[in-house]
Amino acid sequence: MALSMVGQRIAHYEILGELGAGGMGVVYRARDQRLGRQVAVKILPEELTGDEERLARFRREAQILAKLSHSNIGAIYGLERVGGRMYLILELVEGQTLADAIAGRALGLGRTLHIASGIAKALEASHRALIVHRDLKPGNVMLDAESNVKVLDFGLAKSVSPEQPTSTEISESPTLVAEDTEEGAVLGTAPYMSPEQVRGQPVDARTDIWAFGCVLFEMLTGKRAFGGPTSSDIRAAVLRETPAWEALPQETPDDLRRLLRWCLARELAERLRSIGDARLILDDCIRDAERPGPRAIPS
User: Fold this and answer.
1) With 50 as the cut, is the pLDDT of residue 173 above it?
2) Using CA atoms, how far apart are residues 136 and 97, in angstroms rounded to an integer?
3) Dihedral (C-alpha) 78, 82, 87, 88: value to the nearest 10 degrees?
4) Does the first or last residue of the chain, that is N or C, have fewer Cβ atoms within 10 Å of its Cβ?
């Protein structure tokens, strides 16, 4: 399919080469011949063009991205339909994925904090717009040469509505609940799925917070928080296992350790409620790391 598309034109976009492929489509590098810039074009695979559910999800991704405007989120430029096929025209983000940057190696505290802060800012903007990503993972985070972040691929994202929680055990603040998430639908990528995703239960913004904790743990250790030889084993680990906290580098600040435990709390009532709170903790850790001289030891 990639060879057949290279050199073709979609409206005024010339396909130059394939960038990557996934369950929600193939992404190509293309030249916008009207504006003289390069873009990314996401194409729904031809065999799925008759799948109404996939078409609806593709359109929903475009609508969701249109609601978001943030420096840490890849932008959308348009939605095209040519010859019965749908195309998303997206910002072309150069660099490498966070998955490639990690590749089984810890990134170091300073770089981890910088990247984590960018991811948290992207999720904060998304949640402020009442959107839950639902598929945050290193493969959906792009880094430029300075490790600046762009969060991509909102193909599984959901628009949500504010709803007051009925349980006083959770919080007095609003919870974001997905409007069209059906119980029993298991969507996401196994090592980064929250317990509620694994169970096929409705999700809210805390699902992204769990995935953020998984990504943060992986950046610090080079290892996944939850693993196993098969997807079923990984999902079982998400529901039952404890991350290998001893794998965290010795220099990991106590505040960062606490943040990880709050993000990866299996019970929703105990999980961090706001990714904005995570960003504040990360900003404090960054300031402490940049402060010259020995750190003060708490009494």
Assistant:
1) no
2) 12
3) 0
4) C
Which pLDDT tens digit goes with each residue over 195-240? 999 999 999 999 999 999 999 999 999 999 999 999 999 999 999 9
Q: pTM for the whole thing?
A: 0.87
Torsion of CA 193, 261, 177, 231, to 10 degrees: 10
Give the side-chain half-sphere CA count within 13 A for 248. 23
How many C-beta atoms lie closer than 10 Å to residue 270's C-beta? 12
Residue type, 63: Q
Retrieve residue 74's tokens. 């890849």
Concatenated DSSP letters of 217-272: HHHHHSS-SS--SSHHHHHHHHHH----GGGS-TT--HHHHHHHHHHT-SSGGGS-
Residue carrying the six token digits 């290279």? 6
Angle (nearest 5°) at CA 235 between 231 and 236 = 115
State how beta strands 25-32 and 37-43 pair. antiparallel
Q: For residue 237, what are its two tokens?
A: 């680990």
Of the residues 32, 135, 153, 204, only one is catalytic, namely 135
